[in-house]
Amino acid sequence: MCGAVSFVARNLRHDFGVCHCKMCQRWAGSALVAITVPAADVDWVGLEHVGKIQSSDWAERAWCNTCGSGLWYRMTTQGDDKDDYEIPLGIFDDANGLEFTREIFTDRKPDSFAFAGDHERLTEAETLSRFGITVDGA
Description:
It is a single chain. 10% of the residues lie in helices and 36% in strands. The chain contains 2 helices and 10 strands, in the order ββαββββββββα. Strand 7 (70-75) and strand 8 form a beta hairpin. The longest helix has 7 residues, at 22-28. It is globular. The termini are far apart.
């Protein structure tokens, strides 16, 4: 929003997803709508202006310290997805032409809205299992 942090993403996938976990709801103010970008395909400028928090045992979230814009969610544990950024669609200059293909933590979304269309929908348990995440008591 303020320009203190910017990025260039290359080789973008043409699909995006939505996360309804409680942390994404609190961080994004609603569901997190984001596109997956491998670390090798994104260059960040202004990293000195980035704040980060380890928001769970397996992931971090980052934002601009100047204006507060959310920048990324990223897995920090081992696995195939460790070096991927989940970058909110709203911070891309042009997010047109993308396809909505997946929704996760669907059993955690508020009942007051729903995304239409035919796409993958995973519950919290299915999502954690897909990413190999074990939670105490689960």
